[in-house]
Amino acid sequence: MEYDIEHRPSYALLSVDLDQSEAIQAEAGAMVSHTDGIVIETEATGGIVDSLKRTAFGGESFFMNTFRADRPGHVTLAPPLPGDVIGKELTDDRLLVQSGSFLAAETGIDIDTKFGGGRTFFGGEGLFLLELSGTGRTFLSSYGAVERVDLDPGETYTVDTGHIVAFEGSTTFDVKKVGGLKSTLFSGEGLVCEFSGEGAVWLQTRSTDAFLSWLIPNLPAGDGGDHDEGFSINF
Asked: Any idea what the Cα angle at residue 28 is, between residues 24 and 34, rounded to 5°?
């Protein structure tokens, strides 16, 4: 399976070339286009229980689409938010992915939810993470560009919870407050994850939570009427 990622890092588009009988699974709604001869199979991957877990706790779609090639062709995929896409090869290992960052994977990759304990709940990243395991290539998306940080054994690295894309299963992490109570409440940083190596962590340069915190107070106020009071366009 060959692939290419274009228009990165702001508006990345993933193009996957499939030989006959090759297939790739992707999040529902991720497809942009495909050539003739590509068959789309929609199913609850892993069964009803696993799909319900991914939807309720992992923030992902209940159904996933599998694109299978009856003859050689290609599929293009893109995430919902402007940002980058990266490819990651797994070789009988696992990767923990934050909600919303999974885009696609080869069919040899198992996709499940992973209970991370109360620390993930209090960290604002949800009680469950997506766990990708097996052998094959997976594709992750971000809001903004992606930055990879490689940690040596025993090395620690601190990341704002809203900027985490994924991390290798060989790493450990803990959720902490920023400084004391005053810093947590007024610094605008909230809670952070402290990762310990050995392993890699992938970050996104923008945070959806930070964007919404800026956007919502700046939206024009309205009372449900048709007039445009409080919002004007000058020419």
From this structure: 55
Mean pLDDT of the chain: 82
Extract the tokens encoding 229.
Answer: 């009071």
The type of residue at 19 is: D
Average pLDDT, integer, range 197-206: 95
Adjacent-strand bridge partners of 115: 128
Structure confidence at residue 184 as a pLDDT band (50, 70, 90): very low
CB neighbour class for 204 (10 Å; exposed up to 12, middle 13-18, buried from 19): buried
Name the phi and psi angles at 71, rounded to 5: -150, 160
Asked if residue 234 lies in contact with residue 205, where contact means CB atoms within 8 angstroms, the answer is: no
Structure tokens at 84: 């980058």
Strand duo 85-97 + 164-168: pairing: antiparallel
Distance in angstroms (rounded) separating the CA atoms of residues 198 and 169: 10
Give the model's confidence band at 183: pLDDT under 50 very low, under 70 low, under 90 confident, else very high.
very low
Q: What is the C-alpha separation between 166 and 210, in angstroms, rounded?
A: 19
pTM value is 0.80
| pLDDT over 90 at 147, yes or no | yes
Q: Can you give the pLDDT at residue 128?
A: 62
Residue closest to 189 by CA, chosen among 171, 200, 175: 175
Q: How far is CA 66 from CA 23, 27, 31, 55, 108, in A?
A: 7, 9, 10, 17, 12
Whether residue 70 is predicted with pLDDT greater than 80 in this model: the reply is yes
- What is the SS3 assignment for 36? coil
